[in-house]
Amino acid sequence: MVFEAFLLEKTIIVLVVFVVTLSIAAYSTYGERKVAAFLQDRIGPNMAGPYGIWQPLADGLKMFMKEDFVPAAANKFLYHIGPGLSMLTALMVSAVIPWGKSLIIGDGEASVQVTDINVGILYVLGVVSLGVYGVMIGGWASNNKYSLMGALRASSQMISYELPMGLSLIALVMTTGTLSFNEIAAQQSGWNGMEWNIFYQPLGFIIFIVCAFAEANRTPFDLPECEAELVGGYHTEYSSMKLGFYLFSEYAHMFVSSAIIATLYFGGYNFPGINTLYEIMPHNVVTAISIGVLMIKTLFFIFLFMWVRWTIPRFRYDQLMDLGWKKLVPLAIANIVLTAGIVLLFK
What is the pTM for the complete model shown? Predict the structure, then answer.
C-alpha cells in the first residue's frame, strides 16, 4: 500500500506539473504578443475571444490542421526525432523544481516536487546539454543549407554558454554546500523567508540569466533562427506540429529557466514572513500561498525574457561568441575564486 500511495502521489504531481508547464508555455505566446504590442503602442491579439485570450488555442488548431510537409531529400527518421527531443528536454528539467514546501494529507506528508535527487543541479545541466541535439538533428536532417547553418550556430552557442552557466552554479554550490534544489530552496527560508541567494551571488545570477537567454535562443541571442539571414534557421523546413514543437519548446524552456532562476537565486517558494505564517496558519494554506509566490516570481522572469526581446537588438555572431568566451567565462572563474575566499574566511 505504501508503494501504491507513493506512485499515485508522484503520478498526480507529474501530471499537474506537465499540464501547468504546457499551459504557461502556450499562454506565453499570447503574453509575448501583448507585451510586444504594449511596447510598440499596438493592440495585439484581440479577435479570438475576449481580449484575444483564445489566441493560443487558435494557433494550436492552425498547427494541427496545416499540411505536414517532409522534404524529399530529408533523413526522415532524424527529421521526425528532432522536434520531439527538443520538447522532451524542455519538459524533463521541471522534474527537480520544488514548487512548495510540502502538503499534509491525512497522517502523511506529500512533497510538492516530482523528485528530489541529491544531484539536482548536475541533472539540470545534463538535460539542458541534451537540448542541443534536438536542434542539431533537426537542422542537419532537413538537408537545407539554411537549416544546417542554424544548427551549427545553435550547437556552438549552446556549448559556449553552458560553460559559464556551469561555472556560475559552482560558486552557488560552494555557498550552499549542496546540489539538491530542495535543500537550496529550504536554506533560503532564513531571515523569515528572505535569505535569498541573490544577496550572496549577485554576479553569479547575472552570468546565469545571460546564459539562460542564450540557452533558450532568446533575443539578443536568437542567432540560430535569425530570419534576416537564415529564413528560419534550423526549423526552416518544418511545418505543422513539428514546427509547433520547436516553437513551443522555446517557451517551455523559458518557463522552466524562469522557475530555476527563481528557485536558485530568489528564494524559490519562500517569501517574507513565511516562517511566521506557518506558525499561525494551517500548513496547507501557507504551502498554497508559497506555490503562488513561486509562480509570480516565475512569471516576472518570463516577462523579463519578453521585455528584453522587444528592447535589445540582436547581436552579431562574433559578438555573441566573444561575450561567452572572453567576458562571461573569465567573470565566472573570478566569481568562483572570490566565493572560495569568502567561504574560507567566514564559514
Answer: 0.92
